[in-house]
Write a structure and sequence with these properties.
Number of strands: 5
Number of helices: 4
Order of helices and strands: EEHEHEHEH
Distance between the termini: 28 Å
Radius of gyration: 13 Å
CATH topology: Transcription Regulator spoIIAA
Largest sheet: 5 strands, mixed
Structural class: alpha/beta
CATH class: Alpha Beta
């Protein structure tokens, strides 16, 4: 499941992924991201993982295709989650985008929200 919140009059999108993301989550999310890209050119994305279990295969494929298509459309991306594998995922994303990317642990949510706004 994914919770989506857009900051009004801003290119910042806040998402919280809970458990496993599926194709229905991406069908809700991707049009919102594409709308922000059309409106602002570049997007800042706060992506928090709460008790996150990854993606279904179909959702992962949608994510990969979207990331490749829009690799130059992100200004900043912050991932917030458990250190054990999220820091690794953040490093994995770097070659696929020109965005500035940072990882914060769940306890650092406030700092992550500030960083995405700077």
């Amino acid at each position: 499941m994914i919770k989506i919140q857009q900051n009004p009059n801003s290119n910042i999108l806040y998402t919280i992924a809970i458990k496993k993301l599926n194709q229905a989550d991406y069908e809700r999310l991707l049009p919102k991201v594409e709308n922000l890209i059309q409106q602002y050119g570049k997007v800042r994305w706060y992506f928090e993982m709460e008790d996150f279990d990854g993606w279904t295969l179909e959702a992962l494929w949608s994510d990969i295709k979207f990331d490749f298509k829009h690799r130059n459309d992100f200004e900043k991306i912050v991932t917030v989650g458990r250190k054990d594998w999220m820091d690794w995922m953040t490093q994995l994303m770097k070659p696929f985008t020109n965005a500035e990317i940072r990882f914060f642990e769940l306890e650092e949510q406030a700092a992550a929200r500030e960083w995405i706004k700077e």
